[in-house]
Amino acid sequence: MKIRLITVLFVSVCLAAGSYGADTVAPAADSTSSPQATSPLTRTLKLKMTGDDVKALQVFLNTHGFTLTLSGAGSPGHETTLFGKLTDKAVKSFQTKNKLKPDGIVGPITRGIINQLNK
What residues contact 27, with CB distance under 8 A and at least 6 apart? Predict the structure, then answer.
């Protein structure tokens, strides 16, 4: 809810200031819907890995309060298949918040929590 409110406020300010142009993408009109579940994560994920499951991880992080970045690659709606430094940082934040060792590796314990929250 907090991220959605910030997004709505950010968009409102940008629209008022005329900051949205041809090179920017406004968030979807329905910014109040709840995050959609993605397929469960099934393999260990870490820095430099690629795959659709990495993109699913980024979508989860972006929709559950651990936004990778506010604009560009990795931002909400622009998730990628590369587990890079932004994903690593967001995973460590998620792990810290969930009282796990913040190592940036989405192993069985981190993956289990994500899958449980993503049902």
Answer: 7, 11, 76, 77
pTM over 0.85: no
Read off the pLDDT of residues 61-73 as tens digits, 9 standing for 90 and up: 999 999 999 999 9
Cα–Cα separations (whole angstroms), residue 96 to 59, 63, 66, 91, 106: 19, 17, 11, 9, 13
| Beta strand segments in 1-119, E | none
Could you tell me which of 94, 40, 24 has the C-alpha nearest to residue 62?
94
Pick the closest to residue 4 from 34, 36, 37, 31 (CA basis): 31
CB contact set of 99 (below 8 Å; sequence gap of 6+): none
